Amino acid sequence: MKLLAIESSCDETAAAVFEEGHLKSNIIASQDVHISYGGVVPELASRAHIAKISAIVRKALHEAQLDVKQIDAVAATAGPGLAGSLIVGLTFAKGIAMAHRIPFIGINHIEGHIFSACIENKDLQPPFLALVVSGGHSMIVLVKDIGDYNILGTTIDDAAGEAYDKVAKVIGLPYPGGPNIDKIAQKGNPEFHKFPVATIKDKPYCFSFSGLKTAVLYKYRSMSESEQVEHQKDIAASFQKAVIDAIHPKITAAMDEFHIKKLVMVGGVARNSSLRKTMANLATENGFQLYVPSGIYCTDNAAMIGQVALLRLQRNEQSTLDLSPSPNLTIN
C-alpha cells in the first residue's frame, strides 16, 4: 500500500507519503502571512493553500521517491477546520483519486491527532486515554478502538492553544503565542500571581479557559508599564501554571475512573515543555504509560492523517467522492 495524505484544515499545507506502513515523507509549509494579523485569517489561509498545495504534494512524492501513478490510495482531512482551507485539500485529493481511479478517504482531524502517537509507537493499541490540546480543541477522549470513541469532556469556550495566543497578545508577545509563552515562562515565577482555574458543575472533564484569559488581561492592565516589563515572564509562567493545573487533575481522575494505563497527549499544545514535564511526572507517580509525539507530529501535519487512513483502509473503509468538508464532522 502506497498512500498519499493531505492536511489543509487551517494554516499548514501538508502532504505525507506512506509505503507499506512506513512514513516515507512528511512535508509541512506554514503560512507566515498571518503573523502580522496576530491570528489566522481564513480567506488568506485558503488562498495560500491554493498557491502551495501542488508543490507540497510534488515534494512529498519526490522525497518518497514515488510517482503519483504509483499511489494506491489518497486521504485528506475532511473536518473540523476552516471550510475554505478544507475544500482545497479535499478537492486536490479527490482529483487525484478520480484521475488515477484509486480509493479516497476523508479523515477526521481530531482522529488524526489522536493517532499521531502511533507514527513513532507502532505497538500502541487501544484502549487508551487521549488528551487533545491544540489551538482549536481541548478534549479528553476515551479511545476504545479505532472508530469507537467516548468524548469525556471538551472546552466550553476557548481552547488551550487559543488562550495561549490571546494571552500572548495581551502581554506583548508575537503570534503564535504558545511557543513564545513557553519560552519566557521558563525564566518566570509561576507563583507570582494565582490565576483562577475553572471547574464546570456536573462536567468534571470539561475545560474553560476564557475566564483565565480575562483574568490575565485584568491583572496585566492593573500593572504600570514598568511592572508589565519587569514581570512579563512571571505573568507568562503564572498563566501557564493555571492551564496545567486545569488539566492534570482531570487526567488523573479519568485514568482512575476508567482504569486506563496508557495516556496519549497530542495537539500543538502538547509541545509545551512544562506540560510535558508535568505529565511525565504524573505518569511516573501514578504508574501509567505516557505517549507524546515528537514536536513535528503535534502540530497539524499530513502524517497523522495518513496514519489513520491506513488503519481505516485496512478495515476496507473508504469515502465517496462527494464527501464535503464539514466543521461539525464528528468522531463516531
What would you note in describing this structure?
The radius of gyration is 20 Å and the shape is globular. Helices cover 42% and strands 19% of the residues. It is built from eleven helices and ten strands. The longest helix is centred in the C-terminal third of the chain and has 26 residues, at 232-257. The protein is an alpha/beta fold. It has two domains: 2-114 and 300-313, ATPase, nucleotide binding domain (Nucleotidyltransferase, domain 5, 2-Layer Sandwich); 123-292, ATPase, nucleotide binding domain (Nucleotidyltransferase, domain 5, 2-Layer Sandwich). The relative contact order is 0.18. The strands form two sheets. It has a five-stranded mixed beta sheet, with helices on both faces. Helix 5 crosses helix 8 (232-257).
The number of helical segments is 11
Q: How many strands in all?
A: 10
| Major pleated sheet | 5 strands, mixed
Provide the number of structural domains: 2
Query: How would you spell out the order of helices and strands?
Result: EEEHEHEHEEEHHHHHEHEHH
The second-level CATH architecture of the largest domain is 2-Layer Sandwich
Averaging pLDDT over every residue, what do you get? 93
N→C terminal distance: 25 Å
Class by SSE composition: alpha/beta
Could you name the CATH topology of the largest domain? Nucleotidyltransferase, domain 5
As a percent range, the share of strand residues is 15-25%
**Low-pLDDT stretches:** none
